Amino acid sequence: MLMALLLPPGAAPQGYFDQMASHHHHAAMPAGAGGPGYPPVSAATHASAMAQMNAAAGGSPISPMTRTTSTSYIASPLSGGAPGSPALQHRMSMMVGGANKPTLLPARNFNAEMDAKALRKAFKGLGTDDRKVISVLTSRVLEQRLAIKQAFDANFGRDFVKDLRGETSGDFRDLLIALLTPLPELDAFYLHKAMKGLGTNDTTVIEIIATRTNGQIRAIREAYSRVYNRDLETDVKSETSGDYRNLLVALLQARREEGKAVDAAAAKADATALYRAGESRVGTDENVFISILATRSSEHLRTVFDDYAKLSDHSFEKTVEREFSFNIQAGLLAIAKHVRNAPLFFAERLYKAMKGMGTDDSTLIRIVVEHCEVDLGNIKDEFYKAYGQTLETFVRGDTSGNYRTALLGLIEQDTFDPEKDAKALRKAMKGVGTNEDKLVDILGVRKTTQRLAIRTTYDQMYARDLIKDLKSETSGNFQQALLTLMMSPAEFDARSLNRAVKGLGTTDSVLMEILCTRSNMELKAIKEAYHKEFSKDFETDLKEDTSGDYRTLLLTLLQGQRSESTAIDVAQAKADATALYNAGEDKAGTDEAVFIRTLTQRPINQLRITFEEYARLCEYDIEKSIKREMSFNLKKALITIVRYVRSAPDYFAEVLHEAMRGIGTNDDTLQRVIITRAENDLNAIRESYFAQYDESLEAAVESETSGDYKRLLLKLVETALDGDYMRDTEALTMIYQEQLRGLNNGVLPPNSTLGFGMCNSRVAVPKTFKPLAPPRATVKPYPRFNADEDAKALRKAMKGIGTNDKKLIQCLSGRSYEQRMAVKKAYETNLSRDLLKDLRSETSGNFRECLVALMMSSAEFDATCLNKAMKGLGTDDTVLIEILCTRSKQQIIALKNAYRTLFTSELEADLTKETSGQYLKLLLALCKAERSDNPQYTTEEAKADAQALYKAGESKVGTNEDVFIEILTQRSYERLRGAFFEYTKLVDYHLEKSIEREFSFNLKRALVTIVRSIRNGYAFFAERLYRSMKGIGTDDASLIRIVVSRSEIDMGNIREEFTKTFKQDLAAMVKGDTSGSYRQLLIELVEEERTSPEEDAKLLRTCFKGLGTNEDKLSQALCLRTTAQRQMILNAYNQMYAPRTIVQDIKSETSGQYRNTLLALMMTRSEYDAESIHESIKGLGTDDSTLIEILCTRSGPEIKAIRESFRKLFSKDMEQEVGDDVSGDFKQLLASLMKGERPDSNRPVNPKDATADAQALYKAGEGKVGTDEAAFITILTQRSFAHIRAVMDEYAKLSQNSLEAAISSEMSFNIKKALTTIIKVVRDPVEYFTARSQAMMKGLGTNDSGLIRMIVTRNEVDLSQIRDRYLQLYGKTLAAAIESETSGDYMRLLLRMVEEPQR
Fold first, then answer.
1. Cβ 783 vs Cβ 1172: under 8 Å
2. Where are the transmembrane segments (predicted)?
3. 67 strand-pairing partners
């Protein structure tokens, strides 16, 4: 058995697949990466192959998926082609378009998450749904299967392979596990198995090693070494001997020539060499055979074999049989046969695996699994030719049960063949009775074009009409659905429209559904089909059956005049929205023509944007306006267009729901939507249906239909395609936002993510009760986190007299738990102190309790609270209930482990001592952590739970507590929410009311807590917080417990619910009920960080408003943002508070160097540099040091950006302005720098060029009398920094001086300063800017403009490194130097930037 034998040496069987999973669970790689040991395939080739494979299956082309591992492990190895070569790419395309015929192709509608959920469901409960497991795993290619495994493991916290192993057995299990094993590891497994124990399975060894490509051999060797910690070549040598061993070792070197070109002379020479080494001499020179057959390409070998036959009386294979024996003979024959005809070789291997007594299941599994995605179709053809029976027939006869079904699933899934399908249909309808299952299996999975091809082929092959045969052999809705499938979409729509207008009355819903949702091309085809079928124009019938504006709308749609451009124009959308508003809401009466013209002629994408803009304009939806302004069918038709445009999947989900709601089913509509959308967006409709109605579309169809008709509709739903809806919507959103930014000065307005329907979120949210918003934490990982720096800051805050509480709050409240633990570890490692002990000794009261709580994991904190609640006299049941009744399964498990570790006692044991009765039973049931993780459930399940709760309580005398305990502790949260809703429908009041009637004391409180926390956990904790603070006194333990435990989960939502319920802000209530550092710490934990430029802009505005300016908040808001973020804030501020600008407000509300620093922060780096250069040259004199510092240290692109900013800011040319203020060689140097021609340092350095430049500089300076400054200027201003670094090294070899020393001795004044600056920046930029920072503060007075420039421009580059270097060079911190040289808000602003530099 594969399961038992797939083990590394010495490993226990049970643990093997855990190890295997860890080996093959590689990180996702883009197409072409090829996976470990695989030949790389270009992304374009991969995309082409995938598209061809899907087209061959009858699907629309699909984009290549991110690859978990490569599936290009093509087992036709001797066909040549080096990795990435045209030959290999050709071989990839041949997989689908030429010689190779796979039987398994990528699933057209692949969704790893959905497949994982289906498999999880298949494993749950009594028994395993083997049929579902087979249907999923045998219809997905390897990369899809591995993606399913990854999704399963991630979503359910389980190991898919372990579950598979536990739920299946025998050959069936071995086959499924092989399907989940990357191919190099699968080959490695079979080789290891073949050589393990007594004896060697040489047939397997030969089959694998003799038939793999170089790339595959390398991949197998790597996998073998990784999985078994052994060398494959060493094992082969130890298990074989003689020439056979030599052959295998030669093949394992992976040195086969790869290329399709054949040298005829070389081939003839090899044929002669083989002839002379065998037949023409006494004895055999085996080395010649081995050398040629192990190293020549398959194309070359085929020619060699043909040439050999001309030299000898018989074939090359016959010679091998005569000249060799035993395993060497088998190995050489395997190579020869594989080269001649690879599919025939494997067909023979399969035949031998099944003939006679018993079956070689390992070989059968290996070949089917490894070839089904490559060339199993070819192998099947050769099998039939050679043995007169199909491979499927042999497999059916030699296998049984699920194993047989799974194998046939891999073998029978072939490419579309209309002749084969026509034969199968004829057979299904021939004779007595009809095989309806076969009709469903064929027609339910084929595309429209394929079904029409089948119809034509059927008519030609049997001179019979397939339609007539279907009519005569079937009946009812099943017949109607089959006949519908055999029509083109246009024919079906035409017939539906005809039925809608003929006879008495008109079915307007059909007219609207079809005409309002079809494209121009579809409408044209419908009109043609209508005329062909009914010999009259549809317009005529439509005019007769409709009237007024409604008729005008439908006729306009029928003209097919809608623009089908995919481009969008937000400005036009705004104009259209205004026109619609003016035509309706803004006037007496309604101009219907404007609505009709806009909604029938604008492109779909454009209308989506128009509706969004209309909502912005009116503050309500356009649908509401249409309902107000229109009436009757015109209103319904316009709303149909709006809903279809907004979300086609949502619209059709609603149509389907209406068709099946109430008594009876509208089968015409049901068939029309499912069949016409099956190849478009039915899968998205399916997801939307579940999202809106809390019931799967399949379940609804199953309950409303029956028999063969039901099976056919379900087949169509299960094999539906996604279409481009989701991808198009996401792309449209990006374009929309981009244009909005353009129209709003780069600022994205609020609510500018398009909300095109519920299925857009891909989340199952029941329509029947309000969904909970996604959790929002108030404490998140700090993006610029540095554990060592935080540890130093905390030590400094607690050292000496007094404690800097503000710093403690800043470091600990603004870090996630993982970051706080990293700080704790750094504190202990770097300072040899215990952070927790220091916190306890340096703080007190509730502030200390809160800090200590922050230093625990959630599980440790919960465990501590529980222990405290049970310790001493009495038990605090409120704490027990709040924690145990609101924690998830995973949290319960973690807190039990933490409890055991912290208190060396079992939680359950302590609970048993402190509680009793049904209350204890409930708590112990919660401690078992048996709550289901599966979010999926059916309405029937929810109803059953509601009924069970009702029967256990309200409907009987007495109460069955066990039912309540079982359901409320074991069902998933999602299912319980559904059950609560169903319970309310059943009895007209909430479950909590029933619990309060039926239960008492702690059991009642606990059950109500479970229900309320599940119904709306945010509201539950908001109420608990309110109770902890209302009235006299504060329950600080509860306040700390909830704030600390929820701050990294959902405190943002709790705060929102708090405001909604109690009409006051949580932070404000905390502020009123607490004090001091404790209050400030809690406020930091409950307040959310601002997440948008608009929020920052509002904060800045509050800083400027009123008397005085809040400099502290102003500094904090701007320092914690990057330059790019500050630019977004600037744009948002200027837009929101126009005509005010943030620069004007900074200038008017602040002063001095503080103002200058703030203004510097509000510029881009290039603007600030341009401003600094302008300041350095204006007025009398020139600040040469500033010019040198900026121009000599910036890259080429940065210089160009500075020039452009200078032109925009001052409407002048920077080169000319600077040139007017300098002269001589210095002027030439700056002019050369200002061209911005310095190359990127990422470009590789040419050593020869560096040597040449070093020689040129030596000759221009030290090597001559006088100095050629031009050579220095050219080389040092136009070469990359990396190149100059190499030049410096080469110069040192030529001269006894460094290049910097040479410049100092050869140059003078500013030219020397500038060139020396370049050398210093090249050698060590951090040291250069550190020295510049020191220079700004050295001596009398401080160069504040230079200091500001240093701090601001290096803040997002290397300021943290400059800070560290400053301490090394000058023996004190940069912060201390700034503190001694500056003061006030200016000092605090600089210190904030230095202490928390952007990284």
1. no
2. none
3. 29
